[in-house]
Every structure is written in C-alpha cells, then in structure tokens.
Amino acid sequence: MKYRLLGNSGLRVSELALGAMTFGPETGFGVDKDESKLVYDEFRSAGGNFIDTANVYARGTSETFLGEFMASEREQIVLATKYTGAMRGRDINASGNSRKNMMDSVHASLKRLNTDYIDLYWVHARDYLTPVDEMMRGLDDLVSQGKVLYVGVSDTPAWVVSQANMLAEMRGWAKFIGLQIRYSLIDRTVERELLPMARALDIAVTPWGIVGGGILSGKYNDDAEAKGRAKEMGRITDRALKIAAVVQDVAKELGATPTQVAIAWVRRGEGNIIPLVGARTVDQLKENFGALDVVLEDGHIEQLNEASKIRLGFPTDMLRPGAQDMAKKLDNHRAAITPEW
C-alpha cells in the first residue's frame, strides 16, 4: 500500500480507505464481530491506515467494533467518522448539522470508539435548516478542543461546500479537507460541479459506491434471473448493463476482475482521490486490493469513458469550445492546476 496526502493538509493516508459500513449485522447487510475483525486485520496487514465509519452505521455497532479493534494501535490509524444522522429515535434535535446534534454526536462517537479524538470528522449530509456559519464554527470549536483534528463533508452540493470553506478561510476556522461523494462509471454526475470544485480548492475526494452497487462486478450481466429481479425493482437500467459489459471486456483483456477495473478507473481520476472500499469478507477485500495492480492503458480509459459518458450541461457545454480554442493558442503556466471543464 502506498500513501497520499489528504487534500490541503499534512495528513498521510493509504491509497485505499476501508469503509466500515459492513461492521455489524444490525442493518441486515453487515457481518459479525469475528468476520469484521478479519477484514480489519487484512486491511492493516496490507498497510492500510485510513478507516471510515459513521455513527449510524449498524446503529453504532461499527464504531464500537472499531474501538475494540484499534485499541492497541490507535495512534497508527487515521480514523474518520460522521455525524448528521439520527441516533435517538424521534428526538427532534437528534439529527441534522446543528451545534447541539454535533456536540451530542461527537461525544457519543468518542465513547463508542473508545478514543479521545477523531482524526477526520465528516458532516454526513447537507442539512437545509442549519446555517453554514453555525456548522463551521461548531466544527472549528471541536478542532480547538482537540476532539477532532480535521473536518470533511459528505453528500453536499458544491456551492455549499465552497461557501463553507470560504467562510472558514475568512474567519480563520478549520476548513474542509475532504469530500465524500458517490462516484463510479455508472454515475459520473459529480464531474459537473463537485470534482472540479475539489480540484480547484485542493479537497481530497473519497468516493463511495465505486462499483455501482455491485452492477459493475458484472453479476447482473451473468445472471438473467438476478437481472430480471433488479429491473423489476428499478435497481438497474439497460445503460448500466451496457457499461458493465464494457467493464467486463476490459477486465478480460487485462486478466483482472470487473470489480478491479471499476476501482482502477476511479483511481485514475484527476485530483486527490482515495476510493472507499467495503468488504464483507477477506476475499472481497483482497479482490479490491488487486485493483492497485491494474494498469489501464489510454485505450482502455477511452473505451470506458465512451461507454459511460454524460453531458456536463450548462454552462460547461456552452463555454468549453471557446476555452479549448483559446488553450491551443496560449501557453498557460496554470494549466496543471486549472480544472478541466
């Protein structure tokens, strides 16, 4: 495992992050403590140090398991968890990004994780009710108190993230260094606003759903019965199946699995991208690790991009032709740091 800086910070993290949503059986798709520990140990033995969870994962069990697993090596782990989601039933103040829920949530997470501090504290999702300055000031207070070292934001529009970081910069508060978003060959819509913003502001991106909910593994292409059920439930489209078929073709050429190709494509994206990989078993995690050895040639990238392309829409589609014409005439020394449209 190699390592990368996380956004505009000095924090060093492994090139893959372990998503711990599967730690705990409470929500039906996770695994028990013994299996979770095997996955944790395999990730650590491969050199992984970046582990991501949330207060709501398995109703708190994910944090509890991690607290036990990392007890003897806490300082070696870059631990990330989240708040926003409700943990106290119908209590009206038990969800959202308000200062009250933030403080209640961080104290509860610290207890479950059996630690004095959280390396990276994520805002789990945008809260339409909480003012941005209330949220950013509260997060800065946690950093000042030493309970949190860095802050990040997940599942939030680009304009809100930009507003929050500019406000924090003006007032000397802690800024978001990480952005967690859904991104895969199945869903590239974040290329319209979120990814260009992250590159421009030097925010690390930790994408989730990188195998498209399992679609890119090819399991629906190879199983007519499963494909029929998924279509009936609205979980899969013909477009997604066509993209998965191209991924399968590239995987056969490279002697890799479709899952490894899907992860390798995400890793090839521009900017500071550290994919989140989740696994219910050690074998699944090892397969994910195999993506680190997959080398996608330009032809493969072109093939995958063509199959999954989207329209960027207004204003990019209107402005890009002129910008590209100008780029051919100009030696732009800032090109390396200017996001493409």
Describe the structure using short key phrases.
10 strands, 341 residues, 12 helices, eight-stranded parallel β-sheet, globular, TIM Barrel
Strand segment count:
10
Structural class category: alpha/beta
Query: Could you give the distance between the termini?
Result: 32 Å
CATH superfamily: NADP-dependent oxidoreductase domain
**Could you tell me the mean pLDDT?**
94
Share in β-strands: 5-15%
CATH fold group:
TIM Barrel
Described by the principal axes of the CA atoms, the overall outline is globular
Tell me what the CATH architecture is.
Alpha-Beta Barrel
Question: Quaternary arrangement of the chains shown?
Answer: single chain
Rg result = 20 Å
Strand order of the largest sheet: 9-8-7-6-5-4-3-10
- Count structural domains: 1
Parts with pLDDT < 50 across at least 5 consecutive residues:
none
**Tell me, what is the CATH class?**
Alpha Beta
Offer a concise description of the structure.
This protein is of the alpha/beta class and 341 residues long. The chain is built from twelve helices and ten strands.
Q: Could you characterize what this model shows?
A:
This protein has a single domain, classed as Alpha-Beta Barrel (TIM Barrel). The protein is 42% helix and 12% strand. The protein has an eight-stranded parallel β-sheet with strand order 9-8-7-6-5-4-3-10, with helices on one face. Helix 5 links the parallel strand 7 and strand 8. The chain is globular and about 50 Å long. The chain starts with a strand and ends in a 12-residue tail after the last helix. The model has no long low-confidence stretch (mean pLDDT 94).
